[in-house]
């Protein structure tokens, strides 16, 4: 999920209309939430095995959950290593 960064701009202009920067911020935030969180639950990011193996800093992603779309398995990063887990 790509949560937008804080926009250090006025929220509204002199007429009380939301500025374009803040409109974009809220549009992106709402879009990300709609695409990744639903009434059915949180959706794990789908990444191929190759994409998971290319993550730049596996230590920074400790505790992260992803769905390996190549192997059709959920994975979690534990101490810098991606591990699969069986849900049966």
General description of the model:
The strands form 2 sheets. A 4-stranded mixed beta sheet has the order 3-4-5-6. The chain has a domain at 44-84. The radius of gyration is 18 Å and the shape is elongated. The longest helix is centred in the first third of the chain and has 17 residues, at 20-36. Strand 5 (73-78) and strand 6 (81-84) form a beta hairpin. It has helices at 20-36, 49-53, and strands at residues 37-38, 41-42, 46-47, 65-68, 73-78, 81-84. It is built from 2 helices and 6 strands. The two termini are 27 Å apart. With 88 residues, the protein is of the alpha+beta class.
Strand content: 15-25%
Oligomer: single chain
Count of beta strands:
6
User: What percent of the residues sit in helical stretches (DSSP H or I)?
Assistant: 25-40%
In order across it, which strands form the biggest sheet? 3-4-5-6
Number of H/I helices: 2
Question: Unreliable runs, pLDDT <50, ≥5 residues?
Answer: none
Order of helices and strands: HEEEHEEE
Overall pLDDT score = 86
**What profile does the largest beta sheet have?**
4 strands, mixed
Class by alpha and beta content: alpha+beta
Give the termini separation: 27 Å
Q: Measured on Cα atoms, how large is the radius of gyration?
A: 18 Å
Overall 3D shape:
elongated
């Amino acid at each position: 999920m790509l949560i937008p960064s804080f926009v250090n701009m006025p929220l509204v202009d002199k007429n009380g209309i939301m500025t374009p920067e803040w409109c974009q911020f809220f549009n992106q935030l709402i879009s990300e939430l709609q695409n990744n969180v639903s009434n059915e639950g949180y959706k794990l990011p789908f990444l191929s095995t190759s994409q998971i193996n290319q993550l730049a800093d596996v230590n920074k992603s400790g505790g992260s959950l992803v769905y390996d779309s190549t192997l059709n398995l959920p994975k979690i990063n534990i101490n810098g290593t991606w591990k699969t887990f069986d849900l049966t």
